[in-house]
Structure formats: structure tokens, C-alpha cells
Write a structure and sequence with these properties.
Largest sheet: 2 strands, antiparallel
Radius of gyration: 23 Å
Shape: globular
Strand content: under 5%
Number of helices: 10
Number of strands: 2
Strand order of the largest sheet: 1-2
């Protein structure tokens, strides 16, 4: 007979006698995620060792490790990482600030939302990647055009999620707060903003992946340095091991940023059951 134990949030928890029952939810997530990645690398190694795909199409994990050694033995990779890091940091930070600020304003003031919704929907429906050549013409081929493209690709998940969070607040809770004499500023600071935190952080998690896509696309439009430019040059020369190494750099950056956002979510959403 299985014993069902509820945790503090009321969700079923595994029996304490099992392996996962003795570890916390965070540890369980890390163990299972690491196990999946390890299994994926084992399958990858087996496929390449059996010769299912030629090395020019699918390099082995050992080849990718050698490519990492070659990359990090030169100074060019550090210039590439610095260039891509700047584009990612500036674009993502700008998308966060504008997306949260505009999303809160649009969600809190319905008439403002009515006014800007057609414009936001219009821009959201346009493939922002197609705006890259225009941004290069308007802002030049340097850092500004790349940051602008990253911003345009990443801002909408934050903006839409934030405005949806404000609009989905419980109207009964707002009515009770007003009955007790709370003003708009007090309600916004104590109810609307905390209640929108899960939506905001969900938008930030989506924006992380969109920002990395923006960095890659922006560097395809013309860049002397950058991980995306490195991947493009390696692909043109059929150096698939370096292509895989560059993709892993993007993947690791995305995982680190997502982990930071999850940490912020645990910090600012700890009050929620």
C-alpha cells in the first residue's frame, strides 16, 4: 500500500523511504536533468561510434571536446564571447526594462491598452528577424543594430506576459482593497505588482531563448566577432565540430540565464502557495 504524503503546498510527495523521497524537489530536478543529459551524450557517442552518420555530418562528443580545446587555446574566442555577451546583456536588459514597464502600464490602465494594442499586435505579428537588414541600414553594422534586434525579438514575451498578469488579477480582491480605503498606488504596489510576478518571470524565461536567437541572427547579418559569426564561418567550411561547440556555448548561456531567472522566481514569489 502506497503512502501519500502532502508537502507544505498540499501537493503529493513521495514516500520518505524511496530515493527521491529523501531528497528535495530541487535536488530531484538536478539529478533527473543530469541523468537525461548524460543519457543523451551516451546515445550520441554510440551513434557516432557505430558509424551511423559520417563525422562531417555528426561529430562525436570527443571531436566537440577537441574543438573546444582548439577554440579556447586562441584569443579569438574571447573576443567572440565578449561581443555576443554585450549584445545579449544590453538587448535582454533593455527588453526587461521596457517590457515590464510598458506591460504594467498597459495592464493597469485599460484605455492605454486599447490605444497601444493594435500597434503591439502589428509588431508582434511581423517576423522581427526580417527587420534586421533595416536596422543595419538605420543604425549601422555595429553594436547598436544588433542590440536593437535582440531587444525587438525579446521584448514582446515580457510585455505581453506582464500585461496579462495585471489584467488577470482577482477583481474581488481589488474590490475588497478599495473598500478598506486603499488608493491606486497602494493597490498597485501591494496587490498588482506581487500578483504579476509569476507572469513577469515567465515572460523573462521566454525572453532568454528569444534573446539568444536575436544574438545569433544579428551576427549573421554581418559581424567581425561573435559566437554566431563563428558558427557561420565554421558551417561554410564544413567544420561541424566547431558548429556544435558554438551551439553548446549558446545552450549553456541559456541554461545559466534560465537558472538565474528561476532563482529570482523563488526569491520574489516565495509568499505564494
Amino acid at each position: 500500500m502506497t503512502t501519500i504524503i502532502l508537502d507544505d503546498s498540499g501537493a503529493p510527495r513521495r514516500e520518505h523511504g524511496t530515493l527521491f523521497g529523501r531528497m528535495g524537489q530541487r535536488t530531484e530536478r538536478v539529478v533527473l536533468g543530469t541523468a537525461f543529459i548524460a543519457a543523451l551524450f551516451v546515445v550520441w557517442q554510440l551513434v557516432t561510434a557505430l558509424g551511423v552518420e559520417p563525422p562531417i555530418l555528426l561529430p562525436s562528443p570527443a571531436d566537440v571536446v577537441d574543438a573546444f580545446r582548439t577554440l579556447f587555446s586562441s584569443f579569438d574566442i574571447w573576443a567572440d564571447l565578449a561581443a555576443s555577451g554585450k549584445e545579449l546583456l544590453y538587448g535582454f536588459a533593455l527588453a526587461t526594462l521596457v517590457g515590464i514597464g510598458a506591460g504594467l502600464a498597459i495592464g493597469w490602465y485599460p484605455r492605454l491598452g486599447y490605444f497601444f494594442d493594435p500597434f503591439i499586435n502589428f509588431l508582434y505579428a511581423i517576423p522581427r528577424v526580417a527587420l534586421g537588414p533595416l536596422l543595419v541600414v538605420w543604425l549601422g553594422i555595429g553594436l547598436n543594430s544588433k542590440v536593437a534586434l535582440v531587444f525587438l525579438i525579446a521584448v514582446f514575451p515580457v510585455l505581453v506576459n506582464t500585461s496579462s498578469g495585471v489584467r488577470s488579477l482577482d477583481p474581488h480582491l481589488l474590490r475588497v482593497a478599495r473598500c478598506f480605503g486603499a488608493g491606486d498606488l497602494k493597490i498597485f504596489r501591494t496587490i498588482a505588482l506581487p500578483g504579476s510576478v509569476p507572469f513577469i518571470l515567465g515572460g523573462l524565461r521566454l525572453a532568454v531563448g528569444q534573446s539568444l536567437i536575436g544574438v545569433f541572427v544579428a551576427e549573421l547579418l554581418g559581424a567581425q566577432h561573435g559566437v554566431g559569426a563563428m558558427i557561420e564561418n565554421a558551417g561554410q567550411q564544413f567544420q561541424t565540430d566547431i558548429v556544435f561547440a558554438g551551439l553548446l556555448i549558446f545552450a549553456v548561456a541559456g541554461m545559466l540565464l534560465t537558472a538565474i531567472v528561476r532563482g529570482l522566481e523563488r526569491r520574489f514569489d516565495a509568499w505564494r502557495v
